[in-house]
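retry 2 of 3: previous attempt timed out while embedding S-adenosylmethionine. Reduced batch size to 1 and resubmitted. Inputs unchanged:
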Amino acid sequence: MVAIPQGRAEQWAALAERLRAIGLTSEWVERHESAVGRFPAAFAADWLRVQYAVSEEPAALALRLLARDEPVSRAEALAALGEECFAFAVGSGLIEETARGWRSLLRLFLLDSLYLLGDRPEQTTDTVMGVGTTTALLARASYPGERVGSALDLGCGGGALALLLARAADRVVGADLNVRAIAFARINAMLNGITNVEFRVGDWYAPVEGERFDLVVSQPPFLPLRDDQEKIVYLHGGRRGDEMAHLVVSRMPEYLTANGIGFVLADLVTVPVGVTALVSAEVVDLEVDAAIYCAQAERQRDRRWWEEAHRTVEHLRRCGVKEVRLTLLLVGAGGGEQLTVAGDRWAGMDRAGIDALWVAGAAGDWLEQRARIVAGTTMEGECPLGEKVRLWTLRSGRGSLRAYPQVGDGILDLIRWVTRGETLGASLGGLSAGDREKALGVIDELVRHGVLEMV
Ligand SMILES: C[S@@+](CC[C@H](N)C(=O)[O-])C[C@H]1O[C@@H](n2cnc3c(N)ncnc32)[C@H](O)[C@@H]1O
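retry 2 succeeded.
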């Protein structure tokens, strides 16, 4: 395992300052990456690589050196980092010279305005995960709209979520079993000049025993561990994969304040009972997933890799796993309601969007507004030939929420009635107080399911 680079807080901060000064920001990276989006997938990665390889911009050179494992010459490394930061990077053990040129021993990740160091994607027991797509997804979904007092990042790895939350919370704790991860998290705090996050080592809740938090986020390991494999701390969540997610969720209420909320993101085989959940509509293809995951351990695309992947799939089948879905669990959000959400919508959801799905009872505030059916919403009825359809399935026109509320004629009549163009208050004016309350409850649910919208 690569030694953890050593440096003082001001040296790490100076390195980040240098990266900012040469324009290496997540916006800069996104601009370049989205520009290749128009290429067929088979060419996009190569086009991007060549684009960076021919560029003389210091940001491109720094990206190749620190983030992309594409070695650069000494002159290019100096152009990227400047004399002082280059000397620090060499002295601290962050970069080294190889026969192919200068390269980083670690990986730099950019998340929002943060610079984060993690391990290269090797699979050894205590490898520290960098920022993954699921990290970014959880960050967006959980980042609070209003400041909170305290936040906990459980299984924080290199500290990405904890450091992001440092802006939104007075006090943040990041905890992880992996000592190496906590060492990285402390370096990442220095790199970003963040001082209101405390990083602790320990098994799940042990480092925060007796404490409560307004916000808890966690992305536990969620890959299955076969009997013949060595456990990799950041990847393996139990024999079938989702055991750790279940454990984290079951104990979370003890660590939440009265109005606290917890977000757990994981690939789940089963959704814990009574917990509010956004379940991805897409099933994780077990074979594809196993092939991608085994590709990191088996560099050659050969028979060994193929056999590894198949051993994993067979193992899952033996464990009774038929399907796995990416799921966001909301602990403390009450209800235990579950919605199935298509991937495209899911990936783009921020905290406000997620809150709006669960916060019931808003319809009372819409009396001056008009309800209309979300364009493209459809209804389907299924029943034996010759019988009358009793229940209709509504599919949101946003093509997103697939909660598919099942409604009868009474609710269809209500939808027709409140979408004639009058304000909600006027439409419901003739009802008794009790019926009006009931109708508002139904309208609220239809809005949250993306079937109705208020204008
Ligand atoms: C999938 S990684 C997530 C890392 C980071 N939070 C993120 O979202 O990018 C799972 C993390 O859980 C940690 N972990 C695994 N087992 C743990 C345990 N028993 N107690 C605390 N943390 C654990 C791993 O070390 C790893 O950092």
